[in-house]
Amino acid sequence: MFGSRNSRGESVTCIACGESIPRSDAREYDKHGDRWDRRDKAFEHLCKACFADLCQQPRDGLETTLDAAGAGETDRATFLERFRELSEDDANRD
Ligand SMILES: [Zn+2]
């Protein structure tokens, strides 16, 4: 009766790991940087874990990596593959 499980509400997909997460738990990420204009836009979402992970790199690096990986433009499998490659490149750069 007092089922407070949040069963309604959308779920979204984390662009980095592909997990389905409740929208309320997701971090919205707009690679275009203008959150105000929502027309014709698909927002990207990150789960908390990936968000925390990604935010350890400078925002500029994240933008570049996501963009280079084709966020929002390629299908998810391709994006994830590229994203992982790019991230590994970054990690191996030292
Ligand atoms: Zn994730």
Walk me through what this model shows.
Pfam families: DUF7562. This is Small CPxCG-related zinc finger protein. The protein is α+β, with helices and mostly antiparallel strands. The chain has one domain. Strand 1 and strand 2 form a beta hairpin. Bound molecules: zinc ion (ZN). The site of zinc ion has 8 residues, from helix 1.
Structural class of the helix and strand makeup? alpha+beta
DSSP strand (E) fraction?
A: 5-15%
Instruction: Give average pLDDT, whole number.
Output: 74
The helix tally amounts to 3
| Domains, number | 1
SSE order? EEEEHHH
The share of residues in helices is 25-40%
What spatial form do the alpha-carbon principal axes imply?
globular
Ligands (ions, cofactors included):
zinc ion
Distance between the termini: 56 Å
Largest sheet: 2 strands, antiparallel
Overall strand count: 4
Weakly predicted, low-confidence segments: none
* Side-by-side strand order of the widest sheet: 1-2
Task: Give the C-alpha Rg.
Answer: 15 Å
Summarize the structure.
Helix content is 36%, strand content 13%.
Helices and strands in order:
Blueprint: E1 11-13, E2 20-22, E3 27-29, E4 44-46, H1 48-54, H2 59-69, H3 76-91
Helix pairs in contact: 2-3
This protein binds zinc ion (ZN).
InterPro entries: DUF7562
Pfam family, one: DUF7562
Organism: Haloarcula mannanilytica
Task: Write a concise keyword list for the protein shown above.
94 residues; alpha+beta; two-stranded antiparallel ribbon; two-stranded antiparallel sheet; 3 helices; binds zinc ion
